[in-house]
C-alpha cells in the first residue's frame, strides 16, 4: 500500500497531473474574462452588422453567434498555448541549470570494482592505477 501511495504522489506532483489541473483552473478563469470582452466589445459590433442586413436576419443571427463563439475559443486557445509555452521554457531553463555532478568513483581496470576517483591503488586487488 505504501508503494501505491508513493507512486500516486510521484504522479500527482511530478507528472502532467499538476500541469493539467493548473490549465483547467486557468482556462475556467480566463474564459470568464474572454466572455466579458466578447459581450462588451465584440457583440455590439456584430449586432450592428446584423441590423444593417435586417432582411437576412434569420440565418445571420446564427452566423454572428457562431463567429462570437469561434473567436472566444481561438482567444482562449492562444492564451493557454502561450502559458504552456512559458512553463515549458521555464522547465528547460531549470534543467540546464542542473549540470551533471562530477563522478566520485571509477572502475579498477584489473578487477572492475568501484573505487574512489582519487585512488592510486585499488583496495580490492592492490593493483597500482595509472592516471
CATH fold group of the largest domain: Non-ribosomal Peptide Synthetase Peptidyl Carrier Protein, Chain A
Order of helices and strands: HHHEE
Strand order of the largest sheet: 1-2
> Helix/strand-derived class?
mainly alpha
Q: Per the principal axes of the C-alpha atoms, what is the gross shape?
A: rod-shaped
Q: What is the terminal separation in angstroms?
A: 49 Å
Number of domain modules: 2
| Low-confidence runs | none
Mean pLDDT: 76
Number of strands: 2
* Strand composition percent: under 5%
Largest sheet: 2 strands, antiparallel
CATH class category label of the largest domain: Mainly Alpha
Helix content: 55-70%
Please tell me how large the radius of gyration is.
31 Å
The assigned CATH architecture of the largest domain is Orthogonal Bundle
Number of alpha- plus pi-helical segments: 3
Features:
Non-ribosomal Peptide Synthetase Peptidyl Carrier Protein, Chain A; 2 strands; rod-shaped; mainly alpha; 3 helices
Amino acid at each position: 500500500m505504501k508503494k501505491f501511495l508513493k507512486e500516486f504522489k510521484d504522479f500527482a506532483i511530478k507528472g502532467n497531473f499538476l500541469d493539467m489541473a493548473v490549465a483547467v483552473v486557468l482556462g475556467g478563469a480566463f474564459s470568464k474574462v474572454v466572455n466579458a470582452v466578447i459581450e462588451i466589445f465584440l457583440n455590439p459590433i456584430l449586432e450592428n452588422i446584423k441590423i444593417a442586413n435586417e432582411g437576412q436576419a434569420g440565418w445571420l443571427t446564427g452566423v454572428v453567434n457562431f463567429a462570437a463563439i469561434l473567436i472566444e475559443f481561438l482567444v482562449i486557445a492562444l492564451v493557454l498555448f502561450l502559458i504552456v509555452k512559458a512553463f515549458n521554457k521555464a522547465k528547460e531553463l531549470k534543467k540546464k541549470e542542473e549540470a551533471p555532478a562530477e563522478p566520485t568513483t571509477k572502475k579498477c581496470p584489473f578487477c572492475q570494482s568501484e573505487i574512489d576517483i582519487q585512488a592510486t591503488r585499488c583496495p580490492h586487488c592492490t593493483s597500482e592505477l595509472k592516471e
